[in-house]
Structures are given as C-alpha cells and as structure tokens.
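thought: user wants a sequence for this fold. calling inverse folding tool.
action: design(structure=
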C-alpha cells in the first residue's frame, strides 16, 4: 500500500517500509516496561510470536505496575509517550509528525448544529432494564444484592449504584456538557443521557441513517444535541436535510475535531467510547487520546470517562483474588478429576488456575492479578484498552476527575458476528459468568458516569488519596464474574463455547 492510499492517523513505517502493528505493539509495550522492568521489556522485544503470546506481556505490564505506587505512573507515562511516537498523520499523501499535525487543523472544517429534545422536561428516574423487566426501588436493590452475592459485581460497584439510586437529583445533567466520542456505540449511554437534560456533544462517523437515529433519540427526550456538520445549517432546517452533513471521522479529522471542540468554550466531560475492528481500534483509541490530551491541556476542568473491558489484565484487591483462589481449591472430587483430564488432554492449555498468588504493592497492601483476555480479540484491542488505562491514571494523578469502570461483557453486534465468541458468551453462565444485554449495560454505565461526576469522596475524585494508582481501575467493577472465577477464563472458553453451541442448536438461551 502506498502512502497515497492512506489518510489520517497511521502507524509510522519501520525500516522495511511496512506499517506493522506487531512492531508498533512491541515498541510501545517495551518502552512502557523499560523504566520499571528492563528484563520484561527485553522479553517483549525478543518475542517471536506476538499474536499468540501477547497476553503474557500484557500481564507483565500489570505486574510491573503493581510493584510500587510510583511504578504504575512511570510505566503509563512512558507507554503514552511511546504510543504518540509510533503514529504520524497523513493528509493528501503527505506524512507529518502527529503532534505537528494537531497544531495545524484545516480552517472552518466544521459548522455546528443543535437539536433540542421535545419530550417531557422532567428528568426520567433511573431504572434498570433486566430480562424483560424494568427494575426500580426494592426490586433494583434486590438485584444488586444478588449480583454482589454471586460475585458478578464488586461491592464498590453495588455501593455506587445504591448511592445514585438514593440521589435522584444527580440525574439532572442540565449543568453538564458530555462529549461522546463514538456517540452511536451500542453499549454507550446516549439514550439514557437524552432523558436527563444533558447537553450532548455527539461525534460519530458521517452516515445519514446513524445520525437520523441519534437525532430521534434526543428529540424524544429532553437533552440538547450539539453536532459537527460539514457546512452551515440554517436554523429551522428539517432534520432530513442535514443529517447527511453531520458527523466526523476521528481518524482523519482529528486536528479539526480538536479545534471545533475548543470553540464550545465550556467545561467538557469527555467520554472515549468509540470502537472499530482490528488495528483500527488501536488507531481510533490514539485519536481519542489526542483529543483528550489537547482539550485537557486548554481546559483543566475537563473530566474523562472510559468503559474498561473485563477482557483485560487487572490488579485486583486481595478479597476477590482470594475468592478466585478459593473457588479453584474447593473443587470436589469430580471437579478435580475433570480438571486433571482436561489439562492432560490439552497439554496444560485448558482448565488452568486463575489467581495463584498475591503480590506486594509496596504500600502495605497485597493484590492479585486477574486475566480475562480473549486471544481472539487480538493484541491491538488489548493495547488500545491499555492506553485508556494509562491515560486515566495519569490524568487523575494530574488532578482531573476520571470515571473508568469495568464494563460487563455484553452481547453486542460485534460479539454476535463472531460465532466462537457468541457461543462462548451463550455458555458462560455454566462457569459463573453473566453476559449482559446491551440495554442493561447502557443503563448501568450511564448511572456510573453520573455517580462519578457527582460523588464526593469517591475514587473518581482526584482529591481522594489512593494507596496505589491502580486502585482507580479496581473500583466500581462489573466484570460479570470474571474476576472471581476459579479457572483462567480463556482456559474454559472452549467448554463454554461448546455449551453455547449446543444451546443454539436446541434453540435454548
């Protein structure tokens, strides 16, 4: 592929002229590790089979970050700096250093259009759609208790949702301007925010049907929508006449989006929720990171929001780590025999123990490491989500309010189109894992964002001291049970997929 075929954010070519994602992955991960664990950094550089072995190196990043509180920040800062060095910006066939391109946007690339919701001006009370019911009040609290008891959610997650349930006034977001980078995300919060009087700045790809749906959601509620359009739209223009002009490409119009957002001149709450397949997800995560970094530099009151994936490696508190160890140790005779047979037949690949030890955090506390990585999602996805973690902990350390909560595994379209992953999700409950419907995830994550914007004395608040920077990622997690499962999740995925496949053939859920 010649450079003329490329536009926007691209990986810098190597000595051979190739824009190799493996080379980029290894360069970023090794640079992050180098200041805190040079041996692990060298192991990354010499890894011959990155596509299969990347989970081990993602784990090494987490292990190195646990070692002492300062290590997590040092590693994150080095990783982010390296990531920016691995990309450039291409326009009209000409490549430029990324930072230089961000300072040189095309003039007047976007005009602005606004839509005011026509629904009831009253803030819609928060409720939880779950398995055909709309849970409120005691029913909602009872479901939170069941999830907590079953180990589906962490106690901190349950506490946060109970707290927002006790404060219905928090849901009046008329004082907030929430920017959704990837507004049409299937598990994103736009549909909920549209009923809570928020000002929503929506950024997503140009597509008339997509934008018609976004406008419909806002029009039915009481929010105000602000969107970029490619040319000025006179007031009163019918929606159908301008939705084809709306939208922007995060990958190819990054400098222009930054310039446009800076014209809004009000404190922004930036939600980085865009998703793309394959290596494009790593690039779009870097695009969102650039927007976040640039806007935060000019507007220090900017807050951040991320939806962390449970399919990652995390340091976790001692209690869930010990729960996972206990579940593995408490298998009965039949369970131990099943484990022995499965491990023998698979050469040790299947039915591996999940958490085997606790690690000293250098702060008087001990942490476990949980690993929910699904090999099939690939190293680019894993690194993209790690970049978000790094920005979250460095931004909070710099004084920004940051909402980053582990989001449950969700049966979205991107999952359904992968037959193996879909089958695994359909059979995951046999191993104590719950997979959520998109509407349930949307309601939960929207409520958590409200909590983290409004709460005082919670980990999102940078004024609250943490014993370790990684504790930001531990709090408020809804992992669907992945943190507390006795087996390494990917080592039971084939069995879950078999269960799900059989269920699918039998027409069962």
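)
observation: tool returned 509 residues.
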């Amino acid at each position: 592929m010649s450079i003329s075929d490329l536009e926007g954010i691209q990986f810098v070519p190597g000595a051979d002229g190739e824009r190799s994602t493996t080379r980029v992955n290894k360069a970023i991960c090794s640079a992050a590790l180098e200041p805190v664990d040079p041996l692990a950094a060298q192991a990354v550089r010499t890894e011959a089979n990155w596509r299969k072995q990347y989970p081990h190196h993602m784990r090494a990043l987490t292990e190195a970050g646990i070692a002492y509180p300062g290590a997590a920040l040092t590693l994150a800062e080095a990783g982010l700096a390296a990531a920016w060095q691995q990309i450039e910006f291409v326009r009209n066939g000409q490549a430029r250093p990324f930072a230089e391109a961000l300072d040189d946007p095309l003039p007047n690339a976007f005009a602005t259009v606004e839509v005011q919701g026509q629904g009831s001006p009253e803030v819609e009370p928060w409720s939880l759609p779950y398995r055909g019911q709309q849970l409120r009040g005691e029913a909602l609290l009872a479901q939170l208790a069941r999830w907590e008891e079953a180990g589906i959610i962490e106690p901190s997650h349950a506490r946060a949702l109970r707290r927002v349930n006790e404060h219905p006034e928090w849901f009046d977001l008329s004082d907030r301007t929430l920017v959704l980078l990837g507004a049409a995300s299937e598990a994103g919060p736009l549909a909920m925010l549209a009923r809570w009087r928020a000002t929503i700045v929506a950024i997503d790809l140009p597509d008339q049907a997509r934008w018609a749906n976004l406008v419909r959601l806002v029009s039915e509620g009481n929010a105000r929508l602000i969107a970029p359009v490619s040319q000025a739209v006179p007031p009163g223009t019918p929606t159908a006449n301008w939705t084809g002009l709306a939208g922007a490409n995060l990958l190819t119009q990054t400098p222009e989006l930054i310039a446009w957002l800076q014209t809004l001149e009000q404190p922004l709450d930036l939600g980085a929720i865009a998703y793309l397949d394959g290596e494009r997800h790593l690039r779009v995560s870097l695009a969102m990171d650039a927007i976040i970094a640039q806007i935060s530099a000019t507007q220090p009151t900017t807050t951040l929001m991320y939806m962390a994936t449970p399919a990652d490696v995390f340091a976790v508190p001692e209690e869930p780590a010990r729960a996972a160890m206990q579940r593995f140790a408490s298998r009965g005779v039949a369970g131990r025999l099943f484990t022995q047979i499965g491990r023998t037949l698979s050469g040790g690949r299947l039915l591996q123990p999940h958490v085997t030890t606790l690690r000293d955090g250098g702060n008087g506390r001990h942490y476990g490491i949980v690993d929910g990585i699904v090999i099939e999602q690939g190293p680019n996805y894993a690194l993209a989500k790690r970049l978000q973690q790094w920005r979250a902990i460095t931004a909070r350390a710099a004084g920004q309010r940051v909402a980053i909560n582990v989001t449950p595994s969700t049966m979205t379209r991107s999952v359904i189109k992968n037959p193996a992953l879909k089958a695994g999700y359909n059979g995951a409950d046999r191993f104590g894992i719950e997979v959520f419907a998109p509407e349930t995830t949307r309601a939960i994550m929207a409520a958590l964002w409200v909590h983290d914007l409004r709460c005082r004395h919670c980990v999102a608040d940078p004024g609250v001291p943490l014993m370790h920077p990684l504790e930001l990622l531990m709090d408020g997690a809804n992992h669907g049970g992945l943190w507390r499962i006795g087996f390494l999740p990917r080592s039971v995925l084939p069995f879950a997929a078999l269960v799900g496949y059989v269920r699918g053939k039998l027409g069962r859920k």
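thought: summarizing for user.
answer: Here is the designed sequence. Residues 118 and 309 are 35 Å apart (CA to CA).
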